[in-house]
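In response to reviewer comment 3 from the previous cycle, which asked for concrete evidence that the modeling workflow produces usable outputs, we include below a single protein chain processed end to end. The sequence was submitted unchanged, and the resulting structure tokens are shown without manual editing.
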Amino acid sequence: MKSVLFVVIGVAMTFLSSCASYGTRPYSPLRLSVLVEPCAELDVSVRLLDLDGDLHVHGSVCAKGKRASVPGHFDVVVRTADGTEWGRGQAHVRSQFRGGLHAVPTRWTFDATFGGGPPDGSTVSVAHHDAPHSAP
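The workflow returned the following structure tokens.
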């Protein structure tokens, strides 16, 4: 019984260490803060990840009320603690389908990646716009 337990622990440790090798880990909430512009029709959650030294902003979106879709894009702006703009980007909204042949999207996501990591104390602001993503 003990040998089975050690094998299970060994496999779990191998799996956990292999996941860490991708270089993705959440940013400490003490280092960066997130500000999501309120939207009555959307429920938006944002995660900040350190992707091999780059800032990766991953968002998950659900429609509320009678809204059935989430068109448009998100503006993502990173400002340092003194208010200086450190980075700006736009992210397309992508739908995720669940269910069978006639599935409808129930959840949407967006991602933005910035080269490097912003200074401690920076704020990542996220705002949804129904209009299509504008050209750079």
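The chain is about 15% helix and 50% strand. We consider this sufficient to address the reviewer's concern, and the full set will be provided in the supplementary archive.
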